[in-house]
Design goal:
4 domains, Rossmann fold, extended, 5-stranded parallel β-sheet, single chain, Helicase, Ruva Protein, domain 3
Amino acid sequence: MLRHALEEQGHTVVEAVDQPSAVQQLQQARPAVVLTDLKLPDGDGFGVLRAAKELDPELPVVVMTAYGSIQDAVTAMKEGAMDFLAKPVDPDHLLLLVERAIAQRRMAIDNVLLKQELAERRGAPRIVGEDPKLRQVSQQLHRAAGTDTTVLLEGESGTGKELFARALHALSSRNDGPFVAINCAAIPETLLETELFGHEKGAFTGAAARKPGRFELAHRGTLFLDEIGDLPLPLQAKILRALEEKRFERVGGTQSLHVDVRIVAATNRGLKAAVAARQFREDLFFRLSVFPIDIPPLRERPGDIATLARHFMDKFSRDMNKKVHFAPAALEELQTYPWPGNVRELQNCIERAVILCDGDTIQPRHLSLTFKVGPGAVAAPVSPWDQIDLSGTLLEATRRVTSEVERRKVEQAMQGAAGNRQRAAEALQISYKALTSKLREFGISEV
């Protein structure tokens, strides 16, 4: 009777006959609400309640029984039950209770994500532009949105990959679920695993309570893995398993958790090259790149530059209570600028220009374009890091750079000491023997 009443209201119902089968269904189905009888053929409702709370402390549980007592109600509520109902249960009352439980569940998830969502949405521009390449990306997003296929967004930094990921989520059937984002390059490797998969109480020093990870928070929604190319190799195997099996364990836990999550990944690195350099797992690359979408850089969408610039100008003018417009010369400079930082750089440029503009017209001087080229312009400064080979692993790149610094420093010291090894060793504050070894290692002859 209860199943029919709930299904008529559009709910999907999973049934279990006793505590062991209920625990199995909890792990596989990850329900939004649990309704359990207190008296069961094998086990009891308190066992189901404890298993549900072990799986997810925020999971609403309603305990029902015809053998209820004040003590049973008190015990159930103390152990975390949302409510306690005596049978026969009024279906209308139970439906209201289920709706309230689902609303509370959504509110709990929203509260966890609130700060992140506000920070990500604040000032985020909508996707603007009519360039054919952008329209092609939009068509690909619409095709992917109708499936649960994993999508890989590739493009330079600042092209708006997260905005496209949010658009994909909004277009999909999961748009009522959470959109959870994590930047794999912004979190230290030692913390990234707990951020992704969560941790149990006591899993490590400072783990005073259980913490759900981003995979759990994204249940029935979309998980956006930004900068996936910077994911440490040890974590790549765990991510691959989570993608293939939809299962994982919290750090410090032994229970396998099942989640229903759609993965969208993004990278500004060439993952194929990373695979060739053995910095990225080939099997994970193939699993992520089922549906790759390439986001074009702004310099390849010149027709959209003026459109985007006016969009940002209108936005920041409203925010700052100003009325401004572009001088023709300013628009011309915007059109000819290469935009190495893509849409993000353009947005920052226009915000700064609106702030600096002391009249009603944005002039070229208000734009402060860093890499401006042309007659009388200063060439873009060349970063010394562009001349350094940073390929390979972190250890390999560090050793390579350190070795080159040592070689140059030893050469400089030998030149400054006119070839006198003792004086050079004193200047370097190393032993004579160590200097001799370095000279031999780097093949440096006497000056």
